[in-house]
């Protein structure tokens, strides 16, 4: 069967619509599984289900353990690979974990209200994950293998910054020609062409404890120094376009009658450009390098840094191709810039052209009202399948 037939939007849409009831059934099943980022068993239940589906579609599947920085098993990365007859290696990726605590699936079960499905993780990212599997089904139904290789990657720890899967994501991204991220589309239907990067600044302040009434002069207040640090970091907020510095955590002392000997300040930096993030980190180091409170000491650690998904010429070409594929489907493809981070940041930083937001339309992520627009499911599956076929056939530039 020709590429033209395989990627025909109307045929892909018809197949996706015929499978809509199956999609909703599978979505209900996945949402019923608690799979918070620290629930390795739950994450792996979702991953095992998806791995079985991939094997049934002819993929070679491997499962790689993912550990956090302390050595805790977070679950397994599922990697499915299938060779085709095309010219390019396409990576499609989503995540298995949610932000919700154990018991949420039972307390707030999957339900459908009108055209919306609701439940924990229904949009972020179980709807997107499932859309990827159904896009493969749609291509298979039309005899489609117009890709050099299709690589499907499902991670267990995206919601906590991918500490256990980032290295594997980078390795796989370096092998691929293009990548499509299955985070759901924005509420207005936009895809995602750029995301801010993020870094956490952990400032530890050490002082000297003393009785605040009997001998306060023997103390060195870490709390007072922490207050200075908070103000110094806050002054860096919005010093560059689109860059934010949020002081989110401040802890100090143990009792009001004890001069505080320890304090912690944690600030989050977000920026659209890696250079902006790096420069504000250096500015933070300079501003707090010399304590303003006698007898105190400061240490700044940069943690959980994730580079931005920056808009590039390749991004523009991917959006243009998505617009071409989406037009017959009635989708006016546009791409937004968002402050949230996803695994797409990691993949793009490895040098692989990446387009995000290719799941169905959803919203209110991470909240009790999280929803997925079921009327968008079939068109977005057809868009994704058409993109895979077009990109897999060979370079678009």
UniProtKB/TrEMBL annotation:
A GO term for molecular function: hydrolase activity
UniProt xrefs under InterPro entries: Bact_exopeptidase_dim_dom, Pept_M20_glutamate_carboxypep, Peptidase_M20, Peptidase_M20_dimer, Peptidase_M20A
Transmembrane spans: none
Active site residues according to the UniProt entry: 97, 158 (proton acceptor)
Originating organism: Intrasporangium oryzae NRRL B-24470
Start and end residues of each Peptidase M20 dimerisation domain: 194-291
Alphabetized UniProt keyword annotations: Hydrolase, Metal-binding
SUPFAM superfamilies listed in its UniProt record: Bacterial exopeptidase dimerisation domain, Zn-dependent exopeptidases
Keyword Nuclease applies: no
Protein name: Peptidase M20 dimerisation domain-containing protein
Metal-binding is among the record's keywords: yes
